[in-house]
Each structure stands twice: as structure tokens, then as C-alpha cells.
Amino acid sequence: MKEYLYKQLSVAPDSKLTNLSRVIYIFILLSIITIVLESEPSISFGNESTFLTINYIFGFIFLIEYICRLYAVGLNPEYSGFAGRIKYIFSFYAIIDLISFAPFLLIPTASESFLLRVFRVLRLFSLLKTSKHATGLILIGNVIRDKLYELMFAIMLTFGIIFISAVCLYLAEGEIQPEAFGSIPRSLWWATVTLTTIGYGDMVPVTAIGKILTILITVASIGIVAIPTGILAAGFSEALSELKKGKDK
Amino acid sequence: MKEYLYKQLSVAPDSKLTNLSRVIYIFILLSIITIVLESEPSISFGNESTFLTINYIFGFIFLIEYICRLYAVGLNPEYSGFAGRIKYIFSFYAIIDLISFAPFLLIPTASESFLLRVFRVLRLFSLLKTSKHATGLILIGNVIRDKLYELMFAIMLTFGIIFISAVCLYLAEGEIQPEAFGSIPRSLWWATVTLTTIGYGDMVPVTAIGKILTILITVASIGIVAIPTGILAAGFSEALSELKKGKDK
Amino acid sequence: MKEYLYKQLSVAPDSKLTNLSRVIYIFILLSIITIVLESEPSISFGNESTFLTINYIFGFIFLIEYICRLYAVGLNPEYSGFAGRIKYIFSFYAIIDLISFAPFLLIPTASESFLLRVFRVLRLFSLLKTSKHATGLILIGNVIRDKLYELMFAIMLTFGIIFISAVCLYLAEGEIQPEAFGSIPRSLWWATVTLTTIGYGDMVPVTAIGKILTILITVASIGIVAIPTGILAAGFSEALSELKKGKDK
Amino acid sequence: MKEYLYKQLSVAPDSKLTNLSRVIYIFILLSIITIVLESEPSISFGNESTFLTINYIFGFIFLIEYICRLYAVGLNPEYSGFAGRIKYIFSFYAIIDLISFAPFLLIPTASESFLLRVFRVLRLFSLLKTSKHATGLILIGNVIRDKLYELMFAIMLTFGIIFISAVCLYLAEGEIQPEAFGSIPRSLWWATVTLTTIGYGDMVPVTAIGKILTILITVASIGIVAIPTGILAAGFSEALSELKKGKDK
Fold first, then answer.
1. Which of A236, C200, D46, D242 could, after both became Cys, cross-link D201 (CB 3.0–4.6 A)?
2. 8 Å CB contact between B165 and B217
3. ipTM for this model
4. For residues C87 and A205, what is the distance between their CA atoms, to the nearest angstrom?
């Protein structure tokens, strides 16, 4: 029984999620969806007690899971015995597990503390980390590590161009639109929104010189700002095709 | 006569559209253009009777086409005889054909039901599906199937980044701008519009912390959000050049 | 003298612009800049007579050029003799030359007709077409011709996705925002602005269903809409590197 | 002592920054951050004397650095002796060094002259230029030089498309929205903002013909406008992988 529980809570040899892990995974996903919906006033208003009950149920389920894990983990030589259990309780993922449900059971008002519930998102990662689904996350991690120097340089270049653009517009429009361009930090906001081509339109140059500067800056430097995008897309595409080749063999 | 009709309503051996198919194709396109124009009040207002007449004419044409198909389909061994005709009537494309014109002839007021007329767009596909023009659609279908794992992973990653960005801004600006960032679903709208670089500007962070977060998030993650774009563009470009090579041989 | 003029008005054997051609080229550029500046009321207001004089001078210069060309073209066997001159006058580029200055000399009020002056932009192309600078334009023309099938397909796909997105939002928000989504043509504007990631923000979905649809549509299909961009960029980059290789040999 | 100072102020043989250079580098960065923060009224208001003091301290530090450099530079054969020192004082980087601090020590009110302080950004480059961190900047410089013809052509093409789009919208909406499209320069602003997909939304076509033109222009030409981005991204990615290959050998 203990052994079955231990196996079900661990990862299968073929690195698939076990049936129990899948059920827990679904519960975590459902509890995150509950948090998302609860945060929306037009949904939660008038249904506070319903959400409180749902949160209690999830808290109770995660409590049971926590106890089961604590009980079964003894089979792992690293955490066997009483000392091992104490060691497990203070392990990184066990603390995340605890934080993600304990407050809601102990203090009902803690239910309002959104930040604590965000830990459930971390739980998703802690479950995923050992499964085969993690290969994708490892892959993107590898791409970022592989191309780190290029990416760092390209991102620094991006920030450099954003900074210079911000200084240009600060000098050009700082006095005419003090609210939008009256300081470098304010101009930085405009420069980021413009050079990433988001273009909210909350801050727009209005003078002739400001507009001419913007035209020259954007046409000349959007290409440079898009370099990290190109590096990441190319690196990721490459890594995935290599992974595929490796699988085909 | 029956045989000629059957050939004209089918696809030619060289997978070209027959002359009759082309005429029907043009009628479907015209009927879709009519629907588009009719939906615009400044065009349809005062011309309701004209549009009603046009719709009746299209309905009648599609009725004749339907009867012809029903008559000629007997030459197809699968649908020969009375039982075969009944089978044909309940086949997928025959039902689409029927829905796309029948309501407008039977109940004039059904003409207002826009949704039923959308089926005519499906008819376009049903006609195209067997012609050589379909190779393009098959191609894009193949690219999506080929790169499905990569695309799914990249799109999930995109949604993950959008979700985390939404949570960040919900925590940063939720209380200052409850209308825009007062819940995670509301923040999700902002996060999607920002990270896809659409940037409507209907919801814009206004606090210093919100803006700094947005600058860091956008510069760091627009590259990741653009990965599906890169995968699709590369895959499509590759598939097209292979298709060309195959044709050149 | 006539021969010198003919040579100067033609293209040099090494396909460089001759000195006279360069002078004319600069005059055309200056006359276009004049047109651009004149169109701006804050610049032209109060300076109407100045601009009229400048336009007269440009018109006179282009008249002299036209007469010189007509005189010198006789050395071209195709246009020699009186009949050849008549033939030249009715040739495509001679008509463009004539339209680009004649109205401003004959009827002063024609100066206000902007459209006629746009012909001067065409003159730029007519001058460029034979020079070595044209290789770039020929190149991009070749890339577009080479990838025509792919581009046409990708652009049709783009319009297809834009159309379907427009229909979705028309059904979702047509009744709530009739001004923005009250008909398919209106929704088409929104769909184009959104899927090209321009995002003006003049029309924005406001309902939950409209926003959810937009999130799903944009994340899934921005990749597809960006395919023509990828094809063009790749094709152009390829063609340029091949051109370089050819030159290096 | 003099030799130690000279070595510390120069670049190490392995082109790493020396310890002293790092300290100076950090001081320049801090002084730039101070300038950025000081420009923001909500931060500087009431703290003017604090910022004045900080600026004095930075000015004093940079004065000491300047004197040290002037003293130690004598070991460089090019700048040895009195004449060499004079030559050094009028060298490009020494002038930048001087401008970046002298005015703030001599005239306190010069502290308000933002432009002079921008020279400190130049100092960052002057320090970086000899270090190994400069390889990245040299690399991007090389990529731009390598692809100069392609980039220039693509950027000219971009401006050409922007110009033609601006003329189209000027003709279509110039009379209906004189503020936004009433002249070609005004339309140029709209065309740049639209074709770079920034889309502020401060100027939006409102007529049917203007919107149809915009739809056709954007779908057809966003691909062409994105060519410089593609060229830069590809060239940069290529150059970085070659650099890596060279290092691996």
C-alpha cells in the first residue's frame, strides 16, 4: 500500500505521469482556474461562500496529498526515518506544497491573500519538472543558455536603442508634453512601447521634430530591436528539429 | 445528358474544376459578397427588397444545383438507386448544400438568420476540397500536422507567458485601475494585446511599477511569443520549396 | 553637340547615370520635395506665390529637358525623322514627361491639381529604370515573380483568416457595438488592424466573449498572417546573397 | 606608481577591463542613473540640493580621473612630454571626458543643461571601445557594413512604400480629416506608424475608401517593410555563430 502510493506519487520509469499524479495535476489546474475566476468581481460577487467552500475542498485535497507524500516518502532512502521526514518537510518542493494550501485551512481570511495562492502555479512546475513534458521546458532552457551571450548582447543593444530614443524624444518634446516626455523615465515608457511596435497611443509625439525623429528612429532600429526575436525563434526551431532527428534514430 | 451532368458536377481527371463547377463557384462567391454587403446597414437600408430578391434568386439557383446533383449522383455506384439517394441526402456535404439555401426559400424571414448563410462559406471549401487548388490547403494542413508538437508547445508557452504577465500586472495595478486590471481575466486581455504587439491602448499601465514591469516583460518575452510565427513561416516556406522541387522533377 | 546631348540623356554603356541625368534626377527629387512641402498648409500658407514661382521654374526646366530629348532622340534609329519624333511623343515615357510639367505652364490653376504632379514620381522610375540602380528594383521584382504562387496563396490565406475573424467578431459584438462591428465590412477593418498587429484601438471588443475570441484568434493566427513577411524576407535575402556571389566571381 | 596608474587606466593585454576601469565604469553608470532620475520631476522636486551635491561629487571624481589620465598618459610615447599632453587634451576622447564634468564644477547652473551631461553616455562608449566587450559592438558594426547595400536598398524601399501609402491616404482622406491627412508630411506620420505596425491610433482613416486602401496596403506591404528586420536578424545571427565557431577552434 505504502509502496503503491510512493510509486503513484513519483514518476514512472518511462517518465510518464502516473494516474494519481494526473488526478493531482487536474486538481491543481482546477484550483488555478478557480483562483482566476474568483479574482473577477463580476463572477465572485455574491458567490463568495461558494468560492470559500471550493477553496476549502481544494485545501483539504492538497492536505491529504501532503500527508500521503509525507507518509510514502519514507521509502526514498534520502528521506527515510523521522530525521528524513523532517528533512523532507523543509525541502523546497514540500514547502511550496505546504504554502499552497495551509494558509487557507488555518486562517479563512488568508483566502483573500492572492499572493499565497500564486504558489499553486509553482506546484504545476514542481509536478511537471520530472515528467516527460518537461523536455520542452528543458529545451527552451537549453536554447536560452546556448544563446545566452547573443541574447544578453541583443537585449542590452535593445535597451541601449530604447534609452537613446527616449533621450531624443525627451529633448524634442519634453517641454511641450511634460506629462508624456517630461523626463527620461517617462520617455523610456514611450520608447519601449514604440520600438517593440506595441504602440498603445497613450503617448504620441505631436511636434514636427518629434515626429521626424520617431520616423527615422523606428524605420532604422525596429530591425535591431527584433534581433532577440530572431535569435530565439531560430535557436528554438533548430533545437526542436535536432530533438526530432534524435528521436527518429 | 445525365452522364454529362455527373462529369460536370464532379472533378475532372486532371483535378481541374469543370466549367459548370466554375459557374457554381462564382455563384457561391457572389452570394457571399451579397451577404457581406447586406450586413452593412448603410448599403442594405432601403434596399431590403432588392437583397431579398437577390437572395431568392441565389436560393433558386442552389436549389436547381441540388436537384441536378441528386439526379446525377446515381451514376456513382455508392449512391445509386433510391437507397443510395437517401444515403446521399444525409451525406455531410449534401446537408451543407441543403442548409445553405433551403431556409431562405421556405421561410422568408429566415433570410435574417445570418448564421445559416455562413454555411455558404463551408460550401466554398466543399467545392475546393477536390480541386487542385486544394493542394495549398493540404500543404498548410501538413505543415501544421508536421510541426504540431512544436506549435502546441510554443503556443502553450505563449499562453504561459501571457498568464504570468497578466498576474504581474494584476498585482501591480489591480487596485489602481480596477476596470482594466482588477481581475486576472481582465489582465489577460491586456497581456494578450500587449505581447502580440497589437497594443490597442484601451488598457495601459499607469503606475511606475506597472510600467517598469511592462518594459521588462515585453523586451524579454516578445521574442518567445513570436516563436510560433517563426516555426510556421519556416515550415511553410520549406514545404513550398519541396513542393516546387517535386514539380520541377 | 546633338550627339553629346543624346549620350548625356541616355544611359552610359556601363549603365551609370550620366552627369546630365544626375542633374535632372536631382531636379525631379527637388520638385517632389517642393510638392510635399507645398501640400502642408502651415508651410504653404502665405507662401503661395513663392511656391507658384518655384513650380514655374521646375516646369520650365522640364520643358527644356523635354525639347532637348525630342531634338536628340533623332539619333536613335527607332525615332529618327519627323514620323519618328511623332512616334516618340506618343511613347509611354514621353507622355509621362509631358504630363508632369505641361499643365503647370499652360494653366496656372492646374498647379492645384495634385494628381497631375504625382506623375513626377513616375518620372523618377522612368529615369531609374535603365540605370544600374534598377538592379535592386529588378531583384525585388524577380523575388516577387519567383515566389508569386506562395505569396498569392499566403495573402489569400491571410485574407481568409481576416474574413473569418471578422465574421466571428460581427456575430459576437455586432449588436453591442454596431458602429464598430455592426456589419462584416466594418468588422473586416478591425480584423485587418488586429491581425497585422497594428492595433489602432479605434475599435476594440468589449464583451467577454469578444475578448476571448480575440485572444484565441490572435495567438493562433498571427503566425499565419506573418507568413508572407517570412517568404518575402527569405526570398529577398536569398536573391541578394546570390547576386553578391555572382559579383564576387 | 605612474606606471601602475597607466596600466590601470588602459586595457589589460587580455583586453579585460582593469579593476580601476571597472570602478570608473560603475561611477559613469551611476552618474547616468542620477541624470535619469534627476530628470523626473516627481523624484527631483524637493531634492534639488541632494542631486546638486551628488553631481558635484561625480564631477569631482571625474576631475580626479581626468588629472590621473593626464598624468599617466605620458608613458604613452604618442602623448609624452608637454607637447604630447597638449595633444592628448585635444584628442577626441579627452574632450568628451572634459565636457562630461567640467561645466558642472565651473558653473553650478550648467547643471541644468541636460545636453552636456549626455556626453557621459559617450564616455561609456569611450571606455568600452577598447575592452573585449567591444567585440559585440564591432560585430554589429560589421554586420551593418557587410549588409549595407541590402539594408540601404531595403530601407529606401521601405521609405518608398511609406511615401506612396502616405500619398494614397492624403488623396483619400485629406479633405475629410485635414488635421490627420491634410498634407503629405502629415500622412507620412500615419504611414510610418501604420506600416511599422506600431499603430498609435492618433490618426486613423475613417472613410470606406481610406479603410479599403489601408487594408490592401498593409496586407501587401508589411512584408516588404519587414525586410530590413529579416536582413539584420539573419546577418547578426550568422555573424555570431561564425564568431562562436572561431572561438571553439
1. C200
2. yes
3. 0.84
4. 52
**Domain match, B119 and B158 both:** no
Could you tell me the residue range of the domain that residue A32 belongs to?
2-131
CB-CB under 8 Å, B229 with A40: no
In whole angstroms, give the CA distance from residue D213 to residue D193.
16
B121, B198, B229 ranked by CB distance to C199: nearest:
B198
Smallest CA–CA distance, residue A148 to chain D, in Å, is 12
Residue of C nearest to B193 (CA): C215
In terms of domains, do C210 and C168 share one? Answer: yes
Residues of A in contact with C197 (CB under 8 A): 197
* Tens-digit pLDDT profile for residues C187-236: 999 999 999 999 999 999 999 999 999 999 998 888 788 777 777 777 77
SS (H, E, C) chain B: CHHHHHHHHCCCCCCCCCHHHHHHHHHHHHHHHHHHHHHCHHHHCCCHHHHHHHHHHHHHHHHHHHHHHHHHHHHCHHHCHHHHHHHHHCCHHHHHHHHCCHHHHHCHHHHHCHHHHCHHHHHHHHHHCCCCCHHHHHHHHHHHHHCHHHHHHHHHHHHHHHHHHHHHHHHHHCCCCHHHHCCHHHHHHHHHHHHCCCCCCCCCCCCHHHHHHHHHHHHHHHHHHCHHHHHHHHHHHHHHHHHHHHHHC
Mutation to test the C interface, candidates D147, D204, D206, most C Cβ within 10 Å:
D204
Q: Could you tell me which residues come within 8 angstroms of residue D121 by beta carbon, excluding any fewer than 6 positions away?
A: A163, A164, A167, D32
Residue D174 CA to residue D183 CA, distance in Å, equals 7
Residue A73 has pLDDT above 90, yes or no: no
Residue type (1 letter), D96: I
With beta carbons less than 8 A apart as the criterion, state whether B74 and B67 touch: no
pLDDT tens string A133-178? 566 667 777 888 887 877 887 888 888 889 989 988 988 998 899 9
Alpha-carbon Rg for chain A in angstroms: 25
Say how many domains are in chain B. 2
Its pTM stands at: 0.86
| Half-sphere exposure at residue A58, Cβ-oriented, CA atoms within 13 angstroms | 26
Query: Which whole number is the average pLDDT over A27-31?
Result: 85
pLDDT level of residue A204 (50, 70, 90 thresholds): very high
Residues C167, C110 within the same domain:
no
- D36 touching B, CB under 8 A? no
**Which residue out of A35, A196, A203, A224 would a mutagenesis test of the B interface target, given it has the greatest number of B Cβ atoms within 10 Å?**
A196
Is there a single domain that holds both residue C117 and residue C185? Answer: no
Express each pLDDT in C18-43 by its tens digit.
Answer: 788 888 888 888 888 888 888 888 88
Please name the member of A164, A184, A211 whose beta carbon is closest to the beta carbon of D189.
A211
Both B101 and B168 in one domain: the answer is: no
Flag whether pLDDT at D11 surpasses 70.
Answer: no
Closest CA to C235 of C150, C155, C133, C156: C150
- D219 and D99 in a common domain: no
Q: Does B201 touch chain C (CB under 8 A)?
A: yes
CATH label of the domain that carries residue D167: 1.10.287.70
